[in-house]
Design goal:
- The structure holds two protein chains of two kinds.
- Chain A is mainly alpha-helical.
- Chain A has three domains: about 15-30 and about 350-470, no CATH class; about 45-160; about 160-305 and about 310-350, no CATH class.
- In chain A, about 55% of the residues lie in helices and about 5% in strands.
- Chain A contains 23 helices and four strands.
- Chain A has helices spanning about 15-25, 35-45, 55, 60-80, 85-115, 120-130, 140-155, 160-170, 170-175, 190-195, 205-215, 225-235, 280-290, 290-305, 315-325, 330-340, 355-365, 375-380, 405-420, 430-435, 440-450, 455-465, 465-470; strands at about 235-240, 255, 265-270, 270-275.
- In chain A, helix 1 (about 15-25) packs parallel to helix 2 (about 35-45) and helix 5 runs parallel beside helix 7 (about 140-155).
- Chain B contains twelve helices and twelve strands.
- Chain B has helices spanning about 1-15, 45-50, 60-65, 85-95, 110-120, 135-140, 180-190, 195-205, 215-230, 250-270, 345-355, 360-365, and strands spanning about 20-25, 35-40, 50, 75, 80, 95-105, 165-170, 235-240, 280-285, 305-310, 320, 340.
- The radius of gyration of chain B is 20 Å and the shape is globular.
- Chain B has a domain at about 10-110 and about 215-365: Alkaline Phosphatase, subunit A.
- In chain B, the strands form two sheets. In chain B, strands 1, 2, 6, 7, 8, 9, 10, 11 and 12 form a nine-stranded mixed beta sheet that branches. In chain B, strands 3-5-4 form a three-stranded antiparallel beta sheet.
- Chain B is α/β, with parallel strands linked by helices.
- In chain B, helix 11 packs across helix 12.
- Classes of the chains: A mainly alpha, B alpha/beta.
- Chains A and B meet through helix 19, helix 21 and helix 22 of A and strand 1, helix 5, helix 7 and helix 8 of B.
- Chain B: Pfam families: DUF1501.
- Chain B: It comes from Sphingomonas paeninsulae.
- Chain B: InterPro entries: DUF1501, TAT_signal.
Chain lengths: ~475, ~375
């Protein structure tokens, strides 16, 4: 008997299709399959639009939060006590504002993914956004999630890892999400002024930076290292939020508060940090960002994203070396990835996430704009609410986590809806081979051709085993 | 494994109520006449719908599909109507239903997409014409001051064109149609990763369980009638039905399909009330199916089929047919019912008579490529 591979025998995928679908966000019916797929990917670095039109009009989250806090204060002053009814109304309005902002940000992200001419870089934005995850678990964080990706991730996706890490850790979204704004040095001036308030250190951000964002779990740091780093991080905060009365403080931006910073020299992972103020944690963060442990951590995640749930060790090693020798220069790491045969294996390496599937379905049916399709609600139905994995670890990148039966049935229903909204406006028989060039299986092509309606054929194309994977 | 397969086939059969695509499109014109076009997507089998039991070759070709059940309502010495079309049979008895058998569009190949495109555009080649004949018909009528109703989803090809028309979708998230579910199941069956996930999805959800009341054929018929009876509402409607592609187990599947169609037509009649006397409903499909039954109790893509006219305006109680016969030498390419009537000619004729327009002019406007010969006449009560 012939030995069976644990991986299902899947149809072969062409290099052009790999470039378009595995590295990109899905082909569009009018895309010409790239003659030189690797060149096509690398050429995108020169054309990436950091701030696409879709993002430019997003409202500032911090301003909304500050307005809400002012209302609360006014309510208390007006009534001389906490008026529960008024506060309830204000809170309700605030939550609605935040949801509106969240949905607008999801639409902007989608529009950007549909219109982009640099889909590989856009995919990397989504990758890094999930790596430096802020989960929309409460209204304050929810308000910021769109701005976080726009301001902390996009500008650095083609830069150095350390710069992206700094932007992410200093973004209001992260500082609020991981409770950094509550962290006060025990021996700081702020603590001394209000001894009765007993505010102190919060280690959350310090721990997640080390465990999730840079070094990786079980990479050799101790609890003492985390605590020391947390001390170094004190004072990292957001302008204008909470009890802050400092004039001109911008609630949309990072602010260092020297009064909250724990004085003194810190020793983390055996290295001494004697910098003043903000620069202390910044120096430690840069040290982490350039650590060999971080190189392996990032390399593993990139390999898993592009080469399959079980990352090939040789690819991880090559990416890590590239990361280290280039001092975290991300385009250099991407070039190593694009040059690696493990990322180009002709079998699909990944079952698409709900987000990837949705974007590729919209692109594959020729949509350049999201229009009136509400993507936020759609992603919730498909099982992965955008920017809300519910954990600072982000979504794990393993298909079993999202390829459930209910989610699969929902894809079929959504596909039918997409198909019926297009109807006879698109011929799946001609589109399918264009968006899966050289890769469409005979079985899928056959079933598409036999579908009893044009709309049904489009739906079938979108939920075919070929299209569900990349 | 066996249990699962039984479950799947039972689900597909039992979901007959889903056969209606949630697609209803409407056009507004100032007239008291109503015209409804119901398309049967998937190539409905005319030989099983209006059975030529008087043809000596019929039993040999089709006996297995009829089996021991009743042949249906005998309309004359040659034809019997499928037993599930009980309401239609009653309409026929009241002079409100007319059938044209062995009819086809100019299309002679066997692709659903292309066949539907030819049927809906009125071209004689797929994709040769961009807009639809039903939209061009609207251009021939005086414009209403009342704009068309607009409620989302999609306009079928037959109603696409220069005149703005409305479409309505009864429910937000449609359950997947039978045809899609069956094809998805076939593709996932061969996929070791997707197969168990999909089997679980089907078991936990149960295909028929979530059928919303608003999407069943009766509700759709009623809904259509409610639009058509609004004082300044639309007077032209198109309904899409899916699920006619009966390659396997046709006996049960077609019975379900026809039961739904019959209920939809009755609901339309009842909902229209007094307006039924002003109404003509055309039911047609893109092409027919093979004369002989295939190896899995179904039929494959063929050529000619049957078209129906029902409604109070129809000069019914008649079958119009230049019957070509089912003997092997009489079949089209030795396999299909041979077309002897032009579907385009029927459409042009019924459209002209519905709105009291000139037959020739309607023929030229709806079917510019002059493949129809003369539009049929004497279809409706004058």
């Amino acid at each position: 008997m012939k030995e069976r591979s644990p991986v299902p025998s899947l149809s072969s995928v062409s290099s052009a299709a790999i470039a378009l679908n595995r590295f990109g966000l899905g082909a569009r019916p009018n895309d010409t399959p790239p003659a030189n797929p690797q060149r096509w990917l690398l050429d995108q670095f020169a054309h990436f639009d950091v701030l696409p039109a879709a993002y430019a009009t997003l409202e500032n989250a911090g301003t909304i939060i500050k307005r809400y806090e002012k209302e609360q204060v006014a309510n208390r002053q007006m009534t001389g006590q906490e008026n529960q009814a008024d506060i309830k109304v204000a809170r309700h309005d605030f939550r609605q504002d935040v949801q509106t902002l969240y949905r607008a940000a999801v639409q902007a992200r989608t529009d950007s993914a549909l219109a982009t001419e640099t889909p590989f870089v856009e995919r990397l934005v989504h990758f890094w956004s999930n790596h430096f995850c802020v989960s929309a678990d409460n209204p304050r964080v929810t308000a910021f999630v769109g701005a976080f990706e726009r301001d902390a991730i996009r500008p650095h996706v083609l830069g150095r890892f350390a710069d992206m890490a700094l932007a992410a850790e200093q973004h209001p979204a992260m500082l609020i999400y991981l409770n950094q704004i509550q962290s006060i040095g025990p021996d700081s001036n702020a603590a001394a002024r209000n001894p009765e308030r007993k505010r102190g250190l919060n280690e959350n951000l310090a721990r997640e930076i080390m465990e999730l964002h840079t070094l990786g779990v079980r990479s050799g740091y101790t609890q003492a290292d985390v605590t020391e780093f947390a001390r170094a991080l004190t004072g990292w905060s957001v302008g204008g939020l909470g009890a802050d009365k400092s004039p001109g403080a911008d609630p949309n931006n990072f602010m260092f508060r020297p009064g909250q910073h724990e004085p003194g020299v810190r020793t983390i992972l055996g290295k001494r940090y004697d910098q003043d103020g903000e620069n202390q944690a910044r120096a430690a963060l840069f040290e982490f960002a350039h650590s060999p442990a971080t190189a392996i951590h990032i390399a593993t995640k990139l390999a898993r994203h592009f080469a399959g749930d079980v990352p090939p060790p040789a690819l991880v090693e090559r990416l890590a070396t590239s990361f280290t020798t280039s001092h975290g220069d991300l385009p250099t790491v991407y070039r190593t990835l694009v040059a690696s045969r493990e990322a180009w294996v002709a079998e699909p390496t990944k079952f698409k996430t709900p987000w990837e599937w949705t974007i590729s379905a919209l692109r594959g049916t020729g949509r350049a704009q999201v229009g009136n399709i509400q993507i936020a609600g759609l992603q919730t139905q498909l099982g992965q609410r955008v920017w809300q994995p519910g954990s600072p670890a982000g979504w794990d990148d393993i298909a079993a986590s999202w390829a459930g039966s209910g989610a699969l049935l929902a894809r079929v229903e959504v596909a039918q809806r997409l198909g019926s909204s297009i109807g006879a406006g698109l011929d799946a028989r001609t589109v399918a081979p264009r968006i899966m060039p050289g890769s469409l299986s005979d079985a899928t092509a056959d079933q598409i051709a036999r579908s009893e309606s044009a709309a049904g054929a489009i739906a079938l194309m979108l939920v075919s085993p070929d299209f569900l994977r990349r | 494994m066996i249990a699962r397969r039984q479950f799947l086939s039972a689900s597909v059969l039992g979901a007959g109520a889903l056969f209606v695509a949630p697609g209803l499109a409407l056009a507004t014109v100032p007239t008291e006449r109503r015209f409804v076009f119901i398309i049967q997507r998937g190539a409905a089998d005319g030989l099983d719908i209006l059975r030529p039991y008087g043809d000596p070759a019929f039993t040999g070709l089709r006996g297995a599909l009829v089996g021991d059940d009743t042949l249906g309502t005998k309309l004359d010495g040659m034809f019997a109507l499928h037993p599930e079309l009980a309401q239609v049979a009653r309409m026929y008895g009241q002079g409100q239903a007319l059938f044209v058998h062995a009819i086809a569009s100019p299309y002679r190949d066997r692709s659903h997409f292309d066949g539907q495109n030819v049927l809906e555009t009125g071209g004689n080649q797929p994709y040769a014409v961009r807009d639809g004949w039903l939209n061009r018909l609207v251009t021939m009528l005086p414009r209403s001051t009342d704009a068309a109703i607009a409620i989302a989803a999609t306009i079928p090809t037959a109603l696409r064109g220069s005149v703005q028309v409305a479409s309505y979708e009864p429910s937000a998230l449609p359950h997947a149609a039978d045809d899609l579910m069956a094809r998805v199941t076939a593709l996932y069956d061969a996929d070791p990763q997707l197969h168990p996930v999909w089997a679980a999805a089907l078991e936990t959800n149960g295909l028929a369980a979530g059928v919303g009341a608003s999407r069943d054929p009766v509700s759709l018929g009623r809904l259509t009638a409610s639009f058509l009876t609004k004082p300044s509402g639309p007077r032209i409607a198109m309904l899409e039905t899916l699920g006619w592609d009966t390659h396997t187990a046709q006996k049960g599947r077609l019975a379900n399909q026809l039961k739904g169609l019959d209920a939809m037509l009755a609901a339309l009649r009842d909902g229209l009330g007094a307006a039924w006397s002003q109404t003509t409903v055309l039911v047609a499909t893109e092409f027919g199916r093979t004369a002989a039954v295939n190896g899995s109790g179904g039929t494959d893509h063929g050529t000619a089929s049957v078209a129906m006219l029902v409604g109070g305006a129809v000069k019914g109680g008649r079958i119009v047919s230049d019957w070509p016969g089912l003997a092997p030498a009489k079949l089209y390419q030795q396999r299909d019912l041979r077309p002897t009537s032009s579907l385009d000619g029927l459409i042009a004729g019924v459209a002209a008579e519905s709105f009291e327009l000139d037959h020739e002019k309607v023929g030229r406007t709806l079917f510019s490529q002059n493949t129809i010969g003369r539009p049929m006449s004497d279809l409706l009560k004058s």
